[in-house]
Design brief:
Elements (H helix, E strand, L loop, with lengths): L26 H9 L4 E6 L8 E6 L4 E8 L5 E8 L3 E8 L2 E8 L1 H4 L12 H12 L6 E8 L4 E7 L11 H18 L2 H14 L4
Antiparallel strand pairs: 1-2, 2-3, 3-4, 4-5, 5-6, 6-7, 7-8
């Protein structure tokens, strides 16, 4: 079975699904951008979806990064939520042997929610954004190495964007999403590639 799986999930798409450019930029490009930024630690608090472990917020001119499981530290889990007007919202998650990358929100959609300099955002602000996005039907992508009973495969990449007919999407959107799926599958299915990814992000963040 192919590593790259596009699942057509029955989903009713709201009007928010239209009028946006759905572009998934390469993770390699994202990492280079992060490495070129100068981050500062901002605060620690409970991020959206967490009520036991606090997240640490780091900001730069172009990024806000939530480092999950920051306080108290959890050795078997790691999580980062990256906010960028250029790359959208990307979630990196690891629990034991499971590794997952989610493009939660495309850049064109996120632009509607961030109207102030990104370095000015607090965890409270980011929580409001994540809460608002949860109530919408915006497309997203998930790429994981985890066993998925529904597809009978060791991991895969799925996008609910293809619930919108591909012929109604710009060819550049479909091409970038398929490329993103292919790239992220190579990362999540390789422990070495995943560790390099996390290490580069960690090296870019200052001590708390």
């Amino acid at each position: 079975m192919k590593n790259i799986l596009v699942s057509l999930v029955i989903l009713t798409c709201s009007i928010f699904c239209f009028g946006y450019e759905y572009k998934a930029l390469p993770i390699s490009e994202l990492l280079k951008s992060i490495e070129n930024e100068s981050f500062e630690y901002k605060e620690t608090d409970f991020a959206f979806g967490y009520n036991k472990y606090k997240s640490c917020l780091y900001v730069s001119d172009k990024f806000a990064i939530l480092k999950d499981y920051c306080v108290p530290k959890k050795s078997v889990a790691a999580g980062y939520t990256l906010f960028s007007l250029k790359y959208g919202i990307i979630k990196l998650y690891q629990f034991s042997f499971k590794r997952q990358i989610d493009l939660i929100t495309y850049p064109s959609v996120l632009a509607d929610f961030i109207k102030t300099p990104i370095e000015s955002l607090s965890i409270k602000n980011l929580n409001k954004i994540l809460s608002s996005l949860q109530d919408r039907f915006d497309p997203s992508i998930t790429s994981t190495n985890s066993y998925n009973e529904s597809v009978k495969d060791e991991g895969g990449a799925t996008s609910n964007l293809f619930d919108i007919k591909e012929e109604d999407l710009p060819p550049s959107s479909v091409k970038s999403i398929n490329s993103w799926m292919s790239e992220t599958q190579k990362i999540v299915k390789s422990e070495e590639a995943w560790d390099r990814l996390i290490e580069k992000i960690e090296d870019s963040l200052p001590e708390k």
